[in-house]
Write a structure and sequence with these properties.
Rossmann fold; 2 domains; 4-stranded antiparallel beta sheet; 9 helices; 10 strands; globular; transport; ATP-binding cassette domain-containing protein
Length: 232
């Protein structure tokens, strides 16, 4: 589905990712784990094309991602970042509607198909009853679901989530992860996310990628990769 070959990334002469190879399987949930500063979010930022590797190549469906235009990429992948902001006066439904931009020309209004997809994104994330609420007035867990719905409105094949449970209490952490699990199983959306909690990664992932100092230490099924020796 998605793979990176010999990718490296550096900034201000500091190397963050070192000659890394990774494969993201189609229709699965892949979680990137590791301590702070290990390169988790940097790796995710390259896979979702926010940052460009210093060297190496990234492919999506066997197509070199550099050969795709921005709109083509946005129809294949969408990302929920760790920090998100919105205008004060935007409603849930209107914000989610921005997810349709990659599928339209400039200034083109939403058509019936767009409206159906926006409604689907709200239904899939349990937001129909909140569609007329201002995003700024929602709880942290509700806002996170809104940003996931915004990403879903792009109709991506791959959904990236950078630490989606950060700043949430345990109840809303589980709520978000259960939603991610449902989106994967019900709609066959490939998911790549960064998490800190090992137990959550074991429960909600088909594959884990463990990083340290910009390198992948282990990758594979959670019960095979996360061992007592690894945790030492």
């Amino acid at each position: 589905m998605l793979r990176g070959e010999n990718i490296e990334f550096s900034y201000d002469n500091k190397e963050f990712i070192k000659n890394l190879n990774i494969h993201i399987p189609k229709g699965k949930i892949t979680t990137i784990l590791g301590p702070n500063g290990s390169g988790k979010s940097t790796l995710l930022s390259m896979l979702c094309t926010f940052n460009k590797p210093k060297s190496g190549q990234i492919y999506i469906e066997n197509t070199l991602i550099n050969n795709l235009k921005c709109k083509e990429i946005a129809k294949k992948i969408s990302t929920v970042y760790q920090h998100n902001s919105t205008p004060e006066d935007i409603t849930v439904e209107n914000l989610i509607g921005y997810g349709r931009i990659p599928h339209k020309s400039y200034f083109q209004k939403n058509n019936k198909d767009d409206e159906n997809i926006i409604n689907w994104a709200m239904e899939a994330t349990g937001l129909k009853e909140l569609k007329n609420k201002y995003v700024m007035n929602l709880s942290g867990g509700e806002r996170q679901r809104v940003f996931i719905a915004l990403a879903l409105a792009q109709k991506p094949k791959i959904l990236f989530l950078d630490e989606p449970t950060t700043y949430l209490d345990i109840f809303h952490q589980i709520e978000v992860l259960e939603l991610v699990k449902k989106l994967n199983s019900k709609y066959n959306i490939t998911v790549v996310m960064v998490l800190h909690d090992i137990n959550q990664a074991i429960k909600y992932s088909n594959k884990v990628v463990v990083m340290k100092n910009g390198c992948i230490m282990e990758q594979g099924e959670p019960n095979e990769v996360i061992t007592e020796q690894l945790l030492k």
